[in-house]
Every structure is written in structure tokens, then in C-alpha cells.
């Protein structure tokens, strides 16, 4: 067993598995409220909030589908179906292999549903089993959960390991120079976390980028190949700038969603684990979600020779030499944030652990309202 898989555990208890999915469903809803707070502060505009909300909804749908798939985990269903595998040390999220398997299931969902009894038929059989045989219809419940799982996959709008880039026109700067916002996402298999990218660029090509049948597929393939959390934003932006002479990246942002900490489910080291242990929060409030935003912006443009008689624009990106990690950060700035229930925040505020002074804190009140501290 490798060091990576040693930190992967299966949620084989039925009720623990269901609480886990309910926890994530709630967290994703709170993230939408956080986006609203950031928009009100001017840190995100309406279009950016819409994009981030879209990915949060996709994640919610993926967790819902996995919750249906493993609804009967730990119960005797007549066939071995396993249990959800999660990363209980690095991320607190399901492992990337779960999403890969789900993508394969989605390709065959229609075929599975053709050979399965309908929802109402399965419910009728369960009633007959309960009244006639006086048994718990576990196998029928399992069949129903799998049918609902495949139906959820057919609906689509899920978060996959690779979510290809999409383009949004912002406006024309001048004739022959357009501005676009690209967004794409991945589920980083190294750390089992969802990562979202936003890039603003200027396009000086003859055809607008999304309509260019030559450049657009190349751009999508390039960005998907570079969607690795271990790569610095500077590396991604410079590589893009050099590979596409008529596309000029002006701003690149990356959002790492997670890790998720929970005293009941994860074993991460550090002060947050101690805070959660001391908080002794009830079910549904025993969590804290950290996320990191990185930003790289262009400082100026220089002209470089291209061939014998022409020149191309190249971006010079601004790096923050005073950042905690110095110029090696590979970004203009980096900001860490955390969202946590009110009870957990109270313990964090009392303990004042080192390293959290510069972390933005979003606190979920008992009524579900999100406030920033």
C-alpha cells in the first residue's frame, strides 16, 4: 500500500456515509452565500459569482449522485458494491477515482436504466415485501438507489475530473482586439481537491476565439493539460502566452476548494483539528472548509521578434516579492480563507492559534447567515 492510498478510507457505515454527504451538501450551499458576500465587497463581480456558483452547483450534483450510489453502504444488499473512498488526511473530499468511476458510469447510464425496473414498480415490490414477507426490503432499496443514481447521472451538469474551458465575451477594446474571460476546472488527483481557474485575456486573432475552429480546441486542450495544482500560475500563464501569439493573458486566478476538516471524518494535523476536537460541535456543524485564491496579473507588455520581419506581444507578470513565500510563490498575490460554523469559530477565536491572523474567516450562524470576521 502506497503512502497516498494509506490515507484513503472507505465509509462503510451507512449512517456515517449519509451524514458525510449531507455535510458537503450544506457546505456547498454556504459557499454560495460566501460568494454573495465577496460580491457585495467588490472582490467578485456578478459574472464571476455566476461562474463560481455554477461549479459549486456541479459539485453539489456530483455529491448527490455519489450519495445515491452509496446510500446502502454497509448494508447487506446481496452483492458487493463497496463504499465511498475518501481522503481523510489531505483533503477530506472523495478521492479522484470516485469521480473517474462515476464518469464511466455516466457513459453507460442509459443502458443500465433500460434493464432496471421503474421507481414505482420497485416501491410496490418493497411494500409487498414488508407486508407479505414481513422483511426489510434491503435488496429492493439497493436497486432503487442505483436506479436513482443512474437517473441523476443522466441529468448531467456534474463536476468531472476534467471540466473543459468555456469562454465568455467581455467586450471589444478596439477594432480587432477583443476581451474574453475563460473558465475551467479540474479535480486534482494528487490532493483530491476541486480547483477552479479564471483567465481574462485579450484576443487579436482574425476570428473571435470561441468561434475559431482551429485555435479554440487547441486552447481547451492546452488549458486542461496545464490544470495541475502543483504548477505555479506563472508557469501556466507564461506557457499560454508563448504558445498563442495572438492571445494575451492579462489576469489568471485559481481557487483551491478545500481541505475540509471534520473531527469525525478526517485526521489532518494542525491547529484546526484541535479546535474541532475542543468545539465538540453537534452533527452537521463539525467541520471547517479552507480555500485558497491565487492571482497573477500582467504588469506590462514587451515586444519580441518573431521570425525575420515581425514582432509579437509578450506579457511581463507582476510578482509579489513580499509575499510569505517570496517570489517563488509564482503569483501576484495569494489569499487564504476559511468558512466554519459559529460554534467552531468561537473556539478558534478563543484559542487564537498562530497562522490564522491573516486568514479571512466566514462564519455560518445558526440561521444559516454567513458573516465575515
Q: Which shape, going by the Cα principal axes?
A: globular
Strand content: 25-35%
Proportion in helices = 25-40%
Number of DSSP strand runs: 11
Structural class per helix/strand content? alpha+beta
Number of helices: 11
Q: Give the overall average pLDDT.
A: 90
Structure description:
There is one protein chain. By secondary structure, the protein is α+β, with helices and mostly antiparallel strands. It folds into two domains: 3-26 and 61-155, no CATH class; 163-372, no CATH class. The protein contains eleven helices and eleven strands.
Give a quick set of tags describing it:
373 residues; alpha+beta; nine-stranded mixed beta sheet; two-stranded antiparallel sheet; 11 helices; 28% strand
Please give the structural blueprint.
Layout: H1 3-6, E1 8-11, H2 14-40, H3 46-69, E2 84-87, H4 96-107, H5 109-114, H6 119-133, H7 138-155, E3 162-174, E4 177-188, E5 193-203, H8 215-225, H9 233-243, E6 247-261, H10 271-279, E7 288-306, E8 310-318, E9 333-341, H11 342-351, E10 360-364, E11 370-372
Parallel strand pairs: 9-10
Antiparallel strand pairs: 1-2, 3-4, 4-5, 5-6, 6-7, 7-8, 7-9, 10-11
Quick take:
The chain is α+β, with helices and mostly antiparallel strands. The chain is built from eleven helices and eleven strands.
